[in-house]
Specification:
Length: about 300
């Protein structure tokens, strides 16, 4: 009985204390004693909801890797190469026009002595000269393919009269089966001959062509300086020409008579294709770069930055 009396006394004291606090601070009833059961944030005039203060979405982690830099360099490089090909097209077109202007002129007699440094100004110029072909110093350059058939280019020193210099004549192509001089007697004219052809600059060797071996009679590339020194000739290169005639070419091939080249400019001019290729690549990679930049990477994590009032 005594314990019940003590408990009721404590409860009455607690109730009086709560009533006194409620009279002094009415909000205590909401946020003090009844917090666990009657909490309602909306009744707080200072409360900010998600609608009043929305969260900020931020991205964490790297947005793009170093591959984006490489992708950005591709269209720039392709555009630069396309512009360079435009310049090359203008240069090649002008060069071909200059050579074609020389080739349509009447042939000039070749002077007794020629300055090799002046050949550049007469490249593709038609010339003629006379002399004797030194078949004992003949050189075969090959292999060379013509119409699907394997063969060689016949290069023979021409010993000119009247104390003129000896020069090198590229007489043309013969089939491989007639490589030996004994099998092509008709292709070895004796006595004085007149040669008409194109005066050409020395060729430039590429890195894939093997070196010539003059001591073994193996020539893979017309190295004019080397061949002239080997035959004690002047480094002057004449490419013998002939009228394009299919029947005549077949007859020459069968007899082992070298088939000369036509008097025309045979420089390749593919720069227009290169221009289209590089500019198209630049445009395509530019679109790819734009799409990559605009599209957010899939591996980026998203997080919400909490408001300090929460």
């Amino acid at each position: 009985m005594r314990s019940k009396w003590i408990l009721s006394t404590l409860l009455e004291c607690k109730a009086q204390t709560n009533a006194r606090k409620a009279l002094q601070n009415p909000s205590w009833l909401r946020y003090g004693r009844g917090r666990r059961f009657a909490h309602n944030p909306a009744e707080n005039p200072n409360f900010l909801s998600v609608v009043d203060n929305p969260p900020n979405l931020v991205r964490s982690g790297r947005r793009h890797g170093p591959g984006l830099i490489v992708l950005a360099l591709i269209p720039i490089t392709a555009f630069a190469l396309g512009t360079w090909q435009v310049l090359r097209l203008g240069w090649k077109t002008d060069l071909i026009a200059r050579f074609e202007d020389r080739i349509i002129r009447n042939p000039l007699p070749l002077p007794p002595r020629i300055d090799p440094s002046a050949i550049k100004d007469f490249d593709y110029r038609r010339v003629y000269t006379t002399g004797r072909l030194r078949h004992d110093q003949e050189m075969l350059i090959g292999p060379r393919i013509r119409d699907g058939n394997n063969g060689y280019l016949v290069v023979t020193p021409l010993e000119r009269d009247d104390d003129a210099s000896t020069i090198l004549i590229n007489r043309g192509w013969i089939p491989k089966k007639l490589k030996k001089q004994a099998d092509r007697k008709e292709g070895l004219p004796q006595g004085p001959v007149m040669v008409e052809g194109l005066l050409r600059e020395p060729w430039k060797k590429n890195i894939f062509t093997p070196d010539n071996k003059p001591e073994k009679g193996e020539f893979y590339f017309p190295d004019v300086q080397q061949m002239a020194k080997f035959t004690e000739s002047e480094p002057i290169w004449i490419e013998e020409t002939m009228e394009p005639d299919l029947l005549k070419a077949y007859d020459r091939e069968a007899k082992g008579i070298p088939i000369g080249r036509p008097a025309e400019v045979n420089l390749r001019n593919n720069h227009t294709q290169y221009i289209f290729t590089w500019y198209a690549l630049s445009a395509a990679t530019s679109i790819m770069f734009w799409m990559v930049v605009k599209k957010p990477p899939s591996d980026i994590a998203r997080r919400v930055r909490q408001n300090k009032e929460w």
